[in-house]
C-alpha cells in the first residue's frame, strides 16, 4: 500500500443522501485519507440502494488505487452524472476498498456522520 494512503473503519454510522432520498446508511463504512486530500468515506455496496446508481462510461486511473469506475445517481428530478466512483479491481494493498462506493459531496449529494 502507498504510505500516503490510510484506510480505516470509519467511526460511527454514515449516511449518503441525494435528491431528498437516502441512498444508504452504514456502520461498516471506510475512511480513506490520501496525503493532503480531504478524507473520503467509502460505503459497502451491500449498504447502498444500488438500483439508484447506473455505471457511466467515465473511468479514471490512480497509480496507487487502480482504475475507477463512475456512477450516475438517479433522483426523482434529475440524473447526477459521475457523482460516485468505485475501484472494482483495486491494486495490491488497496483490496479493502473493493466492493465499496464513494461519493462526491456537493450541494446535491450529502455524506454525513449520524
UniProtKB/TrEMBL annotation:
It comes from Maritimibacter dapengensis. This is DUF427 domain-containing protein. Residues 15-105 form the DUF427 domain. It comes from the Bacteria. Pfam families: NTP_transf_9. The lineage of its organism: Bacteria, Pseudomonadati, Pseudomonadota, Alphaproteobacteria, Rhodobacterales. PANTHER family: BLR5716 PROTEIN, DUF427 DOMAIN PROTEIN (AFU_ORTHOLOGUE AFUA_3G02220). InterPro entries: DUF427.
Amino acid at each position: 500500500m502507498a504510505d500516503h494512503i490510510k484506510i480505516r473503519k470509519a467511526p460511527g454510522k454514515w449516511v449518503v443522501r441525494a435528491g431528498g432520498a437516502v441512498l444508504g446508511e452504514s456502520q461498516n463504512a471506510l475512511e480513506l485519507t490520501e496525503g493532503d486530500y480531504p478524507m473520503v468515506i467509502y460505503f459497502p455496496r451491500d449498504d447502498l440502494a444500488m438500483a439508484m446508481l447506473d455505471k457511466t462510461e467515465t473511468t479514471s486511473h490512480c497509480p496507487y488505487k487502480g482504475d475507477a469506475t463512475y456512477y450516475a445517481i438517479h433522483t426523482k428530478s434529475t440524473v447526477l452524472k459521475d457523482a460516485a466512483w468505485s475501484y472494482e479491481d483495486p491494486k495490491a494493498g488497496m483490496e479493502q476498498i473493493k466492493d465499496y462506493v464513494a461519493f462526491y459531496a456537493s450541494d446535491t449529494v450529502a455524506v454525513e456522520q449520524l
